[in-house]
Amino acid sequence: MSETSTAAASPPHATLGHRSPILRVIGIAISAWLLLSVVAAAWFGLTTPQTGTAALVQGLTLAEVLFAVALILLGSIVEGFGWGLSLGTRWPYTRNIVLLMLRGDPEAAHRMLATTVGLIALALAVLNPVQSSFVGLVLVLVTALFGMGTLYVLAGRAPAIVHGTHGLLAYLVFLDYLVALRLPGVSFPIYLEATGALHAVLLALFLGGMVTGQRGFGKPIEAFVRPRRPAQWIFVLHGLAALLVIGTLGWMEPLYPVAFTLALLQAGVGFFVFHAVNLKPRHPGALVVLHQSMVLLITSAIVLQWHW
Ligand code: HEM
User: Fold this and answer.
1) Mean pLDDT in order along the chain per 10 residues (308 residues)
2) Residue 220: its pLDDT value, please?
3) 154 in ligand 1 pocket by Cβ < 6 Å?
4) CA distance 107 to 10
5) Contacts of 137 (CB under 8 A, 6+ apart)
6) What pLDDT, on a 0 to 100 scale, did the predictor assign at position 93?
7) Does 209 sit in the ligand 1 pocket, CB within 6 Å?
8) For residue 256, what are the CA distances in angstroms to 166, 195, 209?
9) Cα of 208 to ligand 1 centre, how many Å?
């Protein structure tokens, strides 16, 4: 069922996204992921050698990492299936947001999950007042504000950099808690500065978000030989950053073999995303979700140093 209609009672600029069987399947997969996240976090907290508050902190940190993954994927569903303006530019909530979420509106689900991630970040800052908790909490709050900004980017009233920054901040939230889990006690800013392999990836994903923001809601990038429009120039920069990712990870291949292979695959996915965006600019679809899943895998493979 194709639904790109404007609801009669909706605020200005509110536009429903596209519903399809694949969206339903992805929705079920994300719900299952969230359920498994809760089970995994509870199991982790209960089986860790630590006890009491320390065990609770461990469980909550794992939940925060897994929820951040789901939140980023929900963001790509919102983008890929054209739900970005389903609630218009009203932020953060509408009165019926829970009902909308239960009816399968990914934008409503994105905001409710963001609220949950914010509450867990707050709980961690209270229960475990260390640098990673405070950095995480501040990042979640600033990401949320930029999330509001993305609505204005989609409505054509804010620059694309706001969209790129929102994506970058979302990954910093994910990485902050992942590093806290993997390397407890290590300062996140210092880790970030020292981990060169992440730099090009962060640049590429920032520019990817800017491509999305610059092309505008429902507009193609358009195939080109010489770039002319701003969206095409940013797309070229995004491609160059992707080459930088492949170059750095290739250079550090013995340390990051899985990340390097994933980056090579991502380049292929990227070309398909480009075609999907030009073919169906309003809802390029599941390829956008795949493109984003690959970024999550690449960043995880770097931090967790996955090897074959
Ligand atoms: C490892 C390298 C890459 C990373 C980390 C990356 C990451 C991203 C991210 C995070 C986005 C934003 C998605 C969103 O807003 O939901 C994006 C968008 C995009 N990427 Fe990439 N990307 C990479 C490589 C490529 C390559 C090589 C191409 C094409 C040849 C490509 C094509 C695109 C296109 C066309 C968009 C815009 C999608 C839209 O406007 O809906 N990407 N990328």
Assistant:
1) 37 71 94 98 96 97 98 97 87 88 93 97 98 98 97 94 98 98 96 98 98 95 97 98 98 98 98 98 96 98 97
2) 97
3) no
4) 14
5) 121, 122, 124, 125
6) 84
7) yes
8) 26, 12, 24
9) 4
Nearest CA residue ID for atom 33, ligand 1: 270
12 burial (CB, 10 Å; 0-12 / 13-18 / 19+) is exposed
Record the tokens describing residue 81, joined without a space. Answer: 């299936």
**All residues at 6 or more sequence positions from 184 whose CB lies less than 8 Å from its CB, including other chains:** none
pLDDT value, residue 172: 98
Packing angle, helices 286-303 and 257-279, rounded to 10:
160
Q: Can you tell me which residue has the tokens 């030989």?
A: 225
pLDDT at 114: 97
The angle at the Cα of 132, spanning 127 to 134, to the nearest 5 degrees, equals 65
Q: What is the pLDDT of residue 157?
A: 94
Question: Is residue 292 within 6 Å of ligand 1 at its C-beta?
Answer: yes
Please name which of 17, 105, 65, 95 lies closest in space to residue 285, comparing C-alpha atoms: 17
Question: How far apart are the CA of 212 and the centre of ligand 1, in A?
Answer: 8
Domain boundaries, the chain: 22-156, 195-307
Q: Cα–Cα distance between 153 and 210 in angstroms, integer? A: 10
